[in-house]
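Final report, section 2: Outcomes. Of the targets proposed, NAD(P)H-dependent oxidoreductase is the one most frequently requested by collaborating groups, and we therefore present its record in full.
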Amino acid sequence: MPLTAVVLVGTLTPSPQPSSSELLGRQVLEALGEHGVTGEVVRLVDHDVKPGVQTDMGDGDAWPAIRDRVLAADILVLATPIWLGQPSSVTKRALERLDAELSETDDEGRLLTYGKVAAVAVVGNEDGAHHTSAELFQALNDVGFTIPAAAVTYWVGEAMGSTDYQDLDETPEATAGTTATLARNTAHLAALLQREQYPAG
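The predicted structure is given below as tokens.
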């Protein structure tokens, strides 16, 4: 079956303002498209995602609809800026909401996220891309996602600089290369897991 992906963008900037995180997330989705993957981008800050660790926090919570899109996809990409050396607060909120998946299982006792693959995209004007991706990878793995080899792409500008990723005239070769590798490995692993799910617990 065709593979699908959803990119959750953790920028703090609401639409329609441009976002470097969304730009890199869309580049990941485009690279996945070269491997037959289709998908969509969700800018989390545009939605009323309530704080909490349940699948539905009620009172107009936008997470249940976003969660449905995540669970319907084979691949989840988290695209985040770096703030104070950390993933954005918006990205962390999405991880907190995904914590609820630890209580959701299929008929054979597996988490609903088993068999789904996750990757990460990071941008910023300070050090911390490896630290940020490490935080996200551990959290994603904790809640059931599988992490492929080389599943992160990033761009980090000059420390305390004023240039954003979206300001560049062209994508740096190193970032384009890691994006291509991420897409190739992520699509490959997702196809394998789609054909053969993890064993029941």
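The chain has a mean pLDDT of 96.
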